[in-house]
Amino acid sequence: xxxxxxxxxxxxxxxxxxxxxxxxxxxxxxxxxxxxxxxxxxxxxxxxxxxxxxxxxxxxxxxxxxxxxxxxxxxxxxxxxxxxxxxxxxxxxxxxxxxxxxxxxxxxxxxxxxxxxxxxxxxxxxxxxxxxxxxxxxxxxxxxxxxxx
Length: 149
Description:
Layout: H1 21-65, H2 70-74, H3 82-96, E1 100-105, E2 108-118, E3 129-138
Antiparallel strand pairs: 1-2, 2-3
Helix pairs in contact: 1-3
C-alpha cells in the first residue's frame, strides 16, 4: 500500500515560519564585519599616509626655507630668495612623489600636499580612495636663538 505525501509541515522545520532567518543574520553580520575590517585596515593606511604627507610637507618647507638670497647674505642680512624657495620646495615634493603647492609670504615658506590613497577593503563598497592632505611652514632663523648662560 502506497502512502501519500503529507502536506502538513514536519515537526521542527517550518513550523514557525522562520526559514532563512539565520542566513539573513549571518549575511548582515558578515557585511558589518567586512565594513569594520575596512575601517581598521584602510583607516590605518590613511592615518599612516597622513603622517607621511605631514613629514614630506615639513621637509619641503625646510628645503624651501634654506634658499637664502646670496646678495642679502653678503650685506649681512638673512632674507629668503622667494622664487628659489618655492622651486626648492616643489622639487623636494616632486622627488618625494607627492607634488603640491609652495608659497612664500613674509619670509615664511608654506607647503601644502594633497593626494589620494587607494583603499584595499573599502573598495568593495565603492570607496576607492581616501584623500590625504598636509600643510607645513618653515622659516630660516639667523644666529643663535637660545643658548646656555
